[in-house]
Amino acid sequence: MKVFVFHTPELTPADTLPDCAVVIDVLRATTTIAAALHAGAVDVRAFSDIDRLMAAGAELAPSQRLRLGERGGKPVEGCDMGNSPLDCTPDAVSGKHLFLSTTNGTRALKRVERSRAVLTAAQINYQAAVNYLRDRQPETVWLVGSGWQGTYSLEDTVCAGAIARALEASAVGNDEVLGAIALYDSWRDRLSELFRHSSHGQRLLRLGNAADIDYCAQSNCCDVLPIQKEPGVL
Ligand code: 3SL
User: Fold this and answer.
1) Ligand 1 mutation pick, 30, 31, 50, 146, max ligand atoms within 8 A of CB
2) CA torsion, points 29, 34, 38, 41, in degrees to nearest 10?
3) pLDDT digits over 79-114, tens only?
Protein backbone atom coordinates (compact mmCIF):
# COMPACT_ATOMS: atom_id res chain seq x y z
CA MET A 1 0.00 0.00 0.00
CA LYS A 2 1.33 3.43 -0.98
CA VAL A 3 -0.25 6.36 0.86
CA PHE A 4 -0.38 9.93 -0.45
CA VAL A 5 -1.70 13.03 1.31
CA PHE A 6 -3.16 15.89 -0.76
CA HIS A 7 -4.08 19.00 1.20
CA THR A 8 -6.81 20.05 -1.22
CA PRO A 9 -8.76 18.41 -4.08
CA GLU A 10 -7.03 20.84 -6.48
CA LEU A 11 -3.64 19.32 -5.59
CA THR A 12 -4.62 15.78 -6.60
CA PRO A 13 -3.17 14.59 -9.93
CA ALA A 14 -5.59 15.36 -12.78
CA ASP A 15 -4.80 12.33 -14.95
CA THR A 16 -5.22 9.41 -12.55
CA LEU A 17 -7.26 8.14 -9.62
CA PRO A 18 -6.25 5.89 -6.71
CA ASP A 19 -7.50 2.45 -5.74
CA CYS A 20 -8.95 4.07 -2.65
CA ALA A 21 -9.66 7.75 -1.96
CA VAL A 22 -10.38 8.91 1.59
CA VAL A 23 -12.03 12.33 1.62
CA ILE A 24 -11.53 14.37 4.79
CA ASP A 25 -13.39 17.50 5.88
CA VAL A 26 -13.10 17.54 9.65
CA LEU A 27 -14.78 20.98 9.93
CA ARG A 28 -17.40 19.79 9.20
CA ALA A 29 -18.78 17.88 6.20
CA THR A 30 -17.24 14.46 6.77
CA THR A 31 -17.87 14.74 10.52
CA THR A 32 -21.53 15.42 9.71
CA ILE A 33 -21.63 12.44 7.32
CA ALA A 34 -20.19 10.13 9.99
CA ALA A 35 -22.50 11.49 12.71
CA ALA A 36 -25.56 11.14 10.46
CA LEU A 37 -24.86 7.54 9.45
CA HIS A 38 -24.00 6.67 13.04
CA ALA A 39 -27.37 8.13 14.12
CA GLY A 40 -29.24 5.91 11.64
CA ALA A 41 -29.57 7.93 8.41
CA VAL A 42 -30.28 5.56 5.48
CA ASP A 43 -27.66 7.26 3.31
CA VAL A 44 -26.04 10.62 2.55
CA ARG A 45 -26.22 11.93 -1.02
CA ALA A 46 -23.60 14.58 -1.75
CA PHE A 47 -24.11 17.47 -4.20
CA SER A 48 -21.73 20.24 -5.14
CA ASP A 49 -24.67 22.32 -6.34
CA ILE A 50 -27.67 23.43 -4.23
CA ASP A 51 -30.10 23.52 -7.20
CA ARG A 52 -29.30 19.88 -8.01
CA LEU A 53 -29.73 18.96 -4.35
CA MET A 54 -33.18 20.59 -4.30
CA ALA A 55 -34.24 18.84 -7.53
CA ALA A 56 -33.06 15.41 -6.31
CA GLY A 57 -34.57 15.96 -2.86
CA ALA A 58 -37.95 16.78 -4.40
CA GLU A 59 -38.18 13.21 -5.72
CA LEU A 60 -38.70 11.93 -2.17
CA ALA A 61 -41.56 12.69 0.23
CA PRO A 62 -40.62 15.22 2.94
CA SER A 63 -40.99 12.48 5.58
CA GLN A 64 -38.25 10.42 3.88
CA ARG A 65 -35.63 13.10 3.35
CA LEU A 66 -33.61 15.88 4.93
CA ARG A 67 -31.87 18.58 2.91
CA LEU A 68 -28.64 19.89 4.47
CA GLY A 69 -27.04 22.94 2.90
CA GLU A 70 -24.07 25.09 3.94
CA ARG A 71 -22.29 27.99 2.26
CA GLY A 72 -19.62 30.09 3.94
CA GLY A 73 -20.27 28.23 7.21
CA LYS A 74 -23.95 29.24 7.31
CA PRO A 75 -27.11 27.18 6.69
CA VAL A 76 -28.61 27.63 3.21
CA GLU A 77 -32.10 29.12 3.11
CA GLY A 78 -34.72 26.61 1.96
CA CYS A 79 -32.83 23.59 3.32
CA ASP A 80 -34.04 21.73 6.40
CA MET A 81 -30.71 22.00 8.22
CA GLY A 82 -27.20 23.38 7.90
CA ASN A 83 -24.04 21.29 8.21
CA SER A 84 -23.78 20.84 11.98
CA PRO A 85 -23.00 17.28 13.12
CA LEU A 86 -24.71 18.17 16.40
CA ASP A 87 -28.04 18.39 14.56
CA CYS A 88 -27.66 14.79 13.37
CA THR A 89 -29.46 13.19 16.32
CA PRO A 90 -31.26 9.86 15.90
CA ASP A 91 -34.57 11.73 16.28
CA ALA A 92 -33.72 14.03 13.38
CA VAL A 93 -32.05 11.70 10.88
CA SER A 94 -32.89 8.06 11.63
CA GLY A 95 -34.55 6.33 8.67
CA LYS A 96 -34.03 9.35 6.38
CA HIS A 97 -32.13 9.94 3.17
CA LEU A 98 -29.89 12.99 3.60
CA PHE A 99 -29.13 15.37 0.72
CA LEU A 100 -25.98 17.36 1.52
CA SER A 101 -24.21 20.23 -0.18
CA THR A 102 -21.32 22.11 1.45
CA THR A 103 -18.72 24.64 0.33
CA ASN A 104 -15.73 22.31 0.12
CA GLY A 105 -16.37 18.77 1.41
CA THR A 106 -18.91 17.68 -1.18
CA ARG A 107 -16.76 19.26 -3.92
CA ALA A 108 -13.76 17.18 -2.77
CA LEU A 109 -15.91 14.07 -2.92
CA LYS A 110 -16.89 14.90 -6.51
CA ARG A 111 -13.22 15.19 -7.50
CA VAL A 112 -12.46 11.55 -6.57
CA GLU A 113 -15.87 9.89 -6.85
CA ARG A 114 -14.72 7.71 -9.78
CA SER A 115 -11.93 6.08 -7.74
CA ARG A 116 -12.23 2.32 -7.30
CA ALA A 117 -13.25 2.80 -3.65
CA VAL A 118 -14.18 6.03 -1.89
CA LEU A 119 -14.46 6.53 1.87
CA THR A 120 -14.98 9.60 3.98
CA ALA A 121 -13.21 10.09 7.28
CA ALA A 122 -13.09 12.62 10.08
CA GLN A 123 -11.42 12.73 13.45
CA ILE A 124 -14.55 11.20 15.05
CA ASN A 125 -14.33 8.00 12.97
CA TYR A 126 -10.89 7.73 11.35
CA GLN A 127 -10.13 4.35 12.94
CA ALA A 128 -12.87 2.78 10.79
CA ALA A 129 -11.02 3.97 7.66
CA VAL A 130 -7.74 2.63 9.06
CA ASN A 131 -9.33 -0.77 9.70
CA TYR A 132 -10.72 -0.87 6.16
CA LEU A 133 -7.35 0.03 4.62
CA ARG A 134 -5.46 -2.51 6.75
CA ASP A 135 -7.95 -5.18 5.80
CA ARG A 136 -8.19 -4.44 2.03
CA GLN A 137 -4.64 -3.28 1.38
CA PRO A 138 -5.40 -1.15 -1.71
CA GLU A 139 -2.28 -0.45 -3.74
CA THR A 140 -2.66 3.33 -3.83
CA VAL A 141 -4.46 5.41 -1.22
CA TRP A 142 -5.12 9.14 -1.44
CA LEU A 143 -5.97 10.99 1.78
CA VAL A 144 -7.62 14.11 0.36
CA GLY A 145 -8.23 17.18 2.51
CA SER A 146 -11.13 19.37 1.44
CA GLY A 147 -9.42 22.61 2.43
CA TRP A 148 -11.23 25.90 2.05
CA GLN A 149 -11.89 27.15 -1.49
CA GLY A 150 -8.61 25.78 -2.80
CA THR A 151 -6.46 26.55 0.23
CA TYR A 152 -4.98 24.26 2.87
CA SER A 153 -6.92 23.41 6.07
CA LEU A 154 -4.94 22.41 9.15
CA GLU A 155 -7.69 20.20 10.60
CA ASP A 156 -7.95 18.03 7.47
CA THR A 157 -4.20 17.49 7.40
CA VAL A 158 -4.10 16.54 11.08
CA CYS A 159 -6.74 13.86 10.47
CA ALA A 160 -4.80 12.60 7.43
CA GLY A 161 -1.80 12.43 9.78
CA ALA A 162 -3.78 10.36 12.31
CA ILE A 163 -4.67 7.87 9.57
CA ALA A 164 -1.14 7.77 8.15
CA ARG A 165 0.34 7.37 11.67
CA ALA A 166 -1.94 4.37 12.30
CA LEU A 167 -0.89 2.83 8.96
CA GLU A 168 2.76 3.23 9.97
CA ALA A 169 4.08 0.20 8.09
CA SER A 170 2.79 1.46 4.74
CA ALA A 171 4.99 3.04 2.10
CA VAL A 172 5.03 6.83 2.19
CA GLY A 173 3.93 8.15 -1.21
CA ASN A 174 4.81 11.85 -0.79
CA ASP A 175 6.39 14.28 1.68
CA GLU A 176 2.95 15.53 2.69
CA VAL A 177 2.42 12.22 4.52
CA LEU A 178 5.42 12.90 6.76
CA GLY A 179 4.29 16.49 7.34
CA ALA A 180 0.77 15.34 8.27
CA ILE A 181 2.11 12.74 10.73
CA ALA A 182 4.38 15.36 12.36
CA LEU A 183 1.43 17.77 12.71
CA TYR A 184 -0.74 15.05 14.25
CA ASP A 185 2.02 13.96 16.65
CA SER A 186 2.48 17.53 17.89
CA TRP A 187 -1.21 18.23 18.50
CA ARG A 188 -2.90 14.87 19.09
CA ASP A 189 -3.77 15.69 22.74
CA ARG A 190 -4.91 19.26 22.02
CA LEU A 191 -6.96 18.98 18.85
CA SER A 192 -9.76 21.28 19.96
CA GLU A 193 -7.18 23.97 20.73
CA LEU A 194 -5.53 23.45 17.31
CA PHE A 195 -8.87 23.63 15.50
CA ARG A 196 -9.63 26.93 17.25
CA HIS A 197 -6.37 28.35 15.83
CA SER A 198 -7.19 27.26 12.28
CA SER A 199 -8.76 29.73 9.85
CA HIS A 200 -11.97 27.74 9.45
CA GLY A 201 -12.10 27.14 13.21
CA GLN A 202 -11.94 30.94 13.63
CA ARG A 203 -14.74 31.33 11.09
CA LEU A 204 -16.91 28.80 12.93
CA LEU A 205 -16.21 30.54 16.26
CA ARG A 206 -17.33 33.88 14.77
CA LEU A 207 -20.54 32.15 13.68
CA GLY A 208 -21.14 30.78 17.21
CA ASN A 209 -20.22 27.15 16.50
CA ALA A 210 -17.74 26.45 19.34
CA ALA A 211 -19.61 23.28 20.35
CA ASP A 212 -19.21 21.92 16.81
CA ILE A 213 -15.44 22.37 17.03
CA ASP A 214 -15.27 20.43 20.30
CA TYR A 215 -17.39 17.66 18.82
CA CYS A 216 -15.30 17.46 15.62
CA ALA A 217 -12.07 17.31 17.67
CA GLN A 218 -13.01 14.04 19.42
CA SER A 219 -11.14 10.94 18.31
CA ASN A 220 -13.12 7.90 17.20
CA CYS A 221 -16.33 8.43 19.16
CA CYS A 222 -18.27 7.01 16.17
CA ASP A 223 -17.58 3.54 14.89
CA VAL A 224 -18.92 4.06 11.39
CA LEU A 225 -17.35 3.76 7.94
CA PRO A 226 -18.98 5.95 5.26
CA ILE A 227 -18.24 4.11 2.03
CA GLN A 228 -19.45 5.20 -1.39
CA LYS A 229 -22.15 2.89 -2.80
CA GLU A 230 -22.48 4.75 -6.09
CA PRO A 231 -20.96 8.09 -7.16
CA GLY A 232 -21.95 10.69 -4.57
CA VAL A 233 -23.91 8.31 -2.31
CA LEU A 234 -22.51 7.14 1.03
O1 3SL B 1 -16.73 23.50 3.45
C2 3SL B 1 -17.38 22.55 3.83
O3 3SL B 1 -17.57 21.55 3.15
C4 3SL B 1 -18.04 22.64 5.18
O5 3SL B 1 -17.72 21.54 5.94
C6 3SL B 1 -17.79 23.96 5.83
S7 3SL B 1 -18.66 24.21 7.33
O8 3SL B 1 -17.89 23.69 8.43
O9 3SL B 1 -19.96 23.61 7.27
O10 3SL B 1 -18.77 25.64 7.48
Assistant:
1) 146
2) 50
3) 999 999 999 999 999 999 999 999 999 889 999 999
* Cβ atoms of residues 111 and 150 within 8 Å: no
Nearest alpha-carbon partner for 204 in 77, 86, 54, 90? 86
Note the ipTM here: 0.96
| 15 Cα–ligand 1 center, Å | 27
Q: Which of 234, 216, 1 is nearest to 118 (CA)?
A: 234
CA of 152 to the centre of ligand 1 (A): 13
The verdict on domain 2-216 having CATH code 3.90.1560.10 is: yes
Q: Which of 180, 190, 140 is nearest to 158 (CA)?
A: 180
- How many CA atoms lie less than 13 Å away from 5 in the CB half-sphere? 29
Q: Domain coordinates of the chain in residue numbers?
A: 2-216
Query: Percentage of the chain surpassing pLDDT 70?
Result: 100
Which residue is closest in CA terms to ligand 1's atom 7?
A: 73
Rg of the chain over Cα atoms, rounded to whole angstroms, equals 16
Ligand 1 is surrounded, with C-beta below 6 A, by 25, 27-29, 70, 73, 83, 102-105, 146
